């Protein structure tokens, strides 16, 4: 039995893609969505013959790109004996991470409206199952590449709430010393390789990171089985960088997982309106890698898919494209009044809150009781409160920091040694920028 059949994934409703609209848009898709696991059914006739068998992932049949569930048959789950998908410890870890993500973002909204943060701030509420389901399976040396919606990915990867909040406040104690802000989280220590404001921009960076892991292992003969996760949205999947990187990753069998957070909207543009074939996962098999569709509001399903995709990458079997169908509970950014989306759609997804779903699973399966979960919630409240106090008290960066890491010649203009602004005819200097 594969990991996916063990999951008893419900026949997909493409949960939020309003099925009537979806049918009008693409009747042929409805035929495929009656299958419980979309990624498992894509047939690519003769692909192995054309490309040579050894280049392709090991599949059940020579002419099929199969779902990763079929590729890893001997998966053993720690909690297999109990028949549950997670142990108590795992359940509590997932719950804590999701509560941290949610509480942190709620606090960001408060701080933003109190004028503590500047620029655009994009929150992750509703999408927690994706970050937690994937990132909690990583090791320290694995990498994560995010988008402008990057706070929660960073927290899941272990960057402290203090340093993310300080970064948002523009303080020196932030993970980028206050120079990045909301959309540019980075942590060398945790291998968070950046949030990126331009959509699609992180995908080549992630592909490069995955290439470097493979190069270290296969050329430099270092011990390295690091995996990179690239997170990005549905609106990014019609962008050229996505296609270029899928091609390269499949061609070179890179240890990467492309994680699409399909929240059905790109600012105010509906995914169904903007995309010729709204099933993004299908683009994986088109490039010779498995494509998976998973309910992104269910952390346990995401986690099962993630285990196999990450495992596949770690074993050197190449990339996977995973489409997580999810939803954001707030506007595109905190500057968005969120008036475009249908209230019925929002209510539909609010009822599928991934944190509530995990809580229900934990309690119904006696992994923990309500009061034990309350203890976690209280602990997280304190962490988030403390992060705000810490950020608030932290110093602002000195003015001289303004020109650090600026590659254009800083000699001609900027802050002079006397602390005053100066502007001279720019010329090129050698070496590092210094004021
Ligand atoms: C290259 C580029 N073009 C346009 C934009 C403007 N823009 C900002 S967010 C966004 C929508 C992205 O939607 P999606 O990828 O679905 O991510 P989500 O915000 O839903 O997480 C666009 C087009 C941009 N940031 N970068
Ligand atoms: Mg989107």
Describe this structure in words.
- The protein is globular.
- The protein folds into two domains: 82-393, 3-Layer(aba) Sandwich (Rossmann fold), CATH 3.40.50.970; 402-435, no CATH class.
- β6 (291-295), α14 (299-314) and β7 (320-325) form a beta-alpha-beta unit.
- The protein is 40% helix and 9% strand.
- The protein has 435 residues and is an alpha/beta fold.
- The chain starts with a helix and ends in a 12-residue tail after the last strand.
- α2 (19-25) packs across α3, α6 (88-113) packs across α7 and α9 crosses α17.
- It has a five-stranded parallel sheet with strand order 1-2-3-7-6, sandwiched between helices.
- It contains 17 helices and nine strands.
- The protein has helices at residues 3-7, 19-25, 27-33, 47-51, 68-71, 88-113, 128-135, 151-156, 161-169, 202-218, 240-251, 271-274, 283-287, 299-314, 343-350, 354-364, 370-393, and strands at 143-145, 228-233, 256-262, 265-266, 269-270, 291-295, 320-325, 413-415, 421-423.
- Magnesium ion binds at residues 233-235, 263, 265-266.
- Tetramer of 2 alpha and 2 beta subunits.
- InterPro entries: DH_E1, PDH_E1_Alpha_Subunit, Pyrv_DH_E1_asu_subgrp-y, THDP-binding.
- GO terms for molecular function: pyruvate dehydrogenase (acetyl-transferring) activity.
- It holds the Pfam family E1_dh.
- Its cofactor is thiamine diphosphate.
């Amino acid at each position: 039995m594969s990991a996916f059949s063990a999951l008893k994934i419900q026949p997909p409703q493409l949960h939020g893609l309003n099925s009537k609209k979806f049918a009008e848009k693409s009747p042929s898709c409805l035929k495929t969505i009656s299958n419980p696991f979309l990624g498992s059914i894509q047939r690519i006739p003769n692909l192995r013959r054309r490309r040579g068998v050894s280049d392709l992932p090991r599949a059940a049949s020579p002419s099929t790109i199969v779902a990763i569930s079929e590729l890893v048959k001997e998966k053993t789950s720690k909690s297999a004996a109990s028949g549950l998908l997670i142990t108590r410890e795992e359940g509590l870890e997932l719950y804590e991470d999701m509560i941290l993500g949610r509480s942190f973002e709620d606090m960001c909204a408060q701080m933003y409206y109190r004028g503590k943060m500047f620029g655009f701030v994009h929150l992750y509420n509703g999408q927690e199952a994706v970050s937690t389901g994937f990132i909690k399976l990583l090791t320290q040396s694995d990498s994560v590449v995010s988008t402008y919606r990057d706070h929660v990915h960073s927290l899941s990867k272990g960057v402290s709430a203090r340093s993310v909040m300080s970064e948002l406040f523009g303080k020196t104690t932030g993970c980028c010393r206050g120079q990045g802000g909301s959309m540019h989280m980075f942590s060398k220590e945790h291998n968070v390789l950046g949030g990126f404001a331009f959509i699609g921009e992180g995908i080549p960076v992630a592909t490069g990171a995955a290439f470097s892991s493979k190069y270290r292992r296969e050329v430099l003969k270092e011990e390295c089985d690091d995996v990179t996760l690239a997170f990005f949205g549905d609106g990014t999947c019609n962008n050229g960088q996505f296609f270029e990187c899928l091609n390269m990753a499949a061609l070179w069998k890179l240890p990467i997982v492309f994680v699409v957070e399909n929240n059905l909207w790109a600012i105010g543009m509906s995914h169904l309106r903007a995309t010729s074939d709204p099933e993004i996962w299908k683009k994986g098999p088109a490039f010779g890698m498995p494509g998976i569709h998973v309910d992104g509001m269910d952390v346990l399903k995401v986690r099962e898919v993630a285990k196999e995709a990450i495992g596949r990458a770690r074993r050197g079997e190449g990339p996977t494209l995973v489409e997580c169908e999810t939803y954001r509970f707030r506007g595109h950014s905190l500057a968005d009044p969120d008036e475009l989306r249908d209230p019925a759609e929002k209510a539909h997804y609010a009822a599928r809150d991934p944190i509530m779903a995990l809580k229900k699973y934990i309690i119904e399966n006696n992994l923990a009781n309500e009061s034990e979960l309350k203890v976690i919630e209280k602990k997280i409240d304190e962490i988030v409160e403390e992060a705000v106090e810490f950020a608030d008290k932290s110093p602002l960066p000195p003015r001289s920091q303004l020109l650090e890491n600026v590659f254009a010649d800083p000699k001609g203009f900027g802050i002079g040694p006397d602390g005053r602004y100066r502007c001279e005819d720019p010329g090129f200097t050698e070496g590092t920028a210094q004021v």
